[in-house]
Amino acid sequence: MNIDTLIDGLPLELVCGSLQTEISCIAEDSRLAEPGCLFIARQGTQTDGAQYITDAIASGAVAVVATDDAIVPADIARIITDDPNQITASLAERFYASPSKSLQLIGVTGTNGKTTTAHLIHQLLNQANMRCGLVGTVQIDDGQNLVTASLTTPSSIDLNKLLRTMVDNGCKAAVVEVSSHALDQGRVRGLAFDLAVFTNLSGDHMDYHNSMDAYANAKSQLFEMLPADAAAIINIDDPNAENMVRNCKAKLLRCTTKDISADFSARCLNASIDGMDARFSGLWGNFEVYLPLVGSYNLSNALQAASIANEIGISKAEIQQGLSNCIAPPGRLEPVKAQQSELAVLVDYAHTDDALANVLKALRPLVPQGKKLCVVFGCGGDRDKTKRPRMAQVAVAFADQLIITSDNPRTEDPQTIIDEIMEGVPKDARGKVFSIVDRRQAIEAAIEQARPGDVVLIAGKGHESYQIIGTQRMDFDDRIIAAEIINEHLAKVGML
Is the pTM for the entire model greater than 0.70? Predict the structure, then answer.
């Protein structure tokens, strides 16, 4: 594609070089530049891309998009704009030939439940023989390959490239987890969303957004993007739902797991530590199904996924069958697989006070009478500090025992983080709270003291296979560590 075609109609001006210069790739990271590349010198959160123009050119960039004051060699095509950050998504969408317009594109946003809802949509559509791609916190599926994700929502360039690959691989739909950061930074600008889901809203990322209003406004942008012929699936059990879609032009479809009127509803009939019997009602009629997911909030996630499937045209029978076969994404109330264990040990990504409360409230009624619910958790360093005492408050309210430990402390002192979490523990509850800085030792302590029938929740890191201490990223997977400890414990007491 030449520069003329790429920038036509966009607020960009070529001030040096030829409009006929061929562009073979675009990049906003100079390390990814290659021969024939258009380098976009955008302002990052840490550094200004203009500092890396020389590096990009050394790697083969033949054109640069930058502000008027950026220094670009005279032999390089120079394209100026007032704001490279805002134009990146439009350039990416144009370069990759508008892939979102060739897909049923589904965006899922909210504080909690994004990953599970997106995964369930992905499963329902694929089981109904509609090939669906996935872009999420845990995994990316481009229609042929399933890989581990690094960001909830990739950069606009990577996202459009992924969507183009999905189209080329035969996908008819794609579901994308859309984070507040991605919306605020314009990473999904220009994408043609056909459907969007709002799961819920609670306090998170205050280190970035600074206020709940700013956080909510960022989330609401997804629904403002929807055209009139699109559909928005909203969880009206959350008090923020109607405000989230106040400027939405699309058709609104309301979901609830409560006894109130809505387009779609679901009710748990019976629950266990392995799953639940549920009744789903809505535009499809009624059906009952055994849902192999743990937790009442997963009923809401499943309902919203089923509503999306229905809106796309999946039959009631296919939705029912798909729900009966669904699985939770990695690290979302995932049982630890160990030999002959009578303990229920689960790993979950809950890393906000609201998410932790939801998980513990879901597990509490599933703990046999006379047995204990123990939770191991911490808080990440260099991140929102306001939630630390709140995490302790909800844990104390629902668990019988707390072991506070390190999460990803990063460059903060782990003990300082633990001390700030402990500020949320009432004095009369200190007897059931312990702190162990070393995460492996904390998990070991929880499992060692547990008895058959007890439930142990290891929260905060979920699917993550690493721990960041200082600036070092080390292998650490709660699921693997817990399984090793369970097997060691069973061998010690002669049960293996």
Answer: yes
Helix (H, G, I), strand (E, B) or coil at 361: helix
Q: Do the domain assignments include residue 94?
A: no
What is the phi-psi region of residue 233: left when phi exceeds 0, alpha when psi lies from -120 to 50, beta otherwise?
beta
- Cα–Cα distances in Å, from 150 out to 125, 138, 155, 491? 24, 8, 11, 36
User: Is 329 inside a domain boundary?
Assistant: no
Write the pLDDT tens digit of every residue in 119-172. 999 999 999 999 999 999 899 999 999 998 887 778 999 999 999 999 999 999
In the chain, what is the greatest distance between 2 CA atoms, to the nearest angstrom? 77
Which of 270, 298, 296, 276 has the alpha carbon at shortest distance from 119? 298
Look at residue 339 in the predicted model and tell me its pLDDT.
64
Of 45, 63, 87, the last residue of a domain is: 87
CA distances from 205 to 100, 382, 385 (A): 28, 11, 9
Place of tokens 């100079």: 30
Q: How many domains does the chain have?
A: 3
Residues 363 and 392 in one domain: yes
> One-letter amino acid identity for 260?
I
CATH of the domain at 464: 3.90.190.20
Element (H, E) at 47: none
Locate 66 and state its tokens.
């930058």
Given 60, 87, 114, the domain boundary residue is 87
Count the neighbouring beta carbons within 10 Å of the beta carbon of residue 244. Answer: 25
Q: Rounded to whole angstroms, what are the CA distances from 210 to 153, 216, 390, 436?
A: 20, 11, 17, 31
Same domain, 317 and 387: no
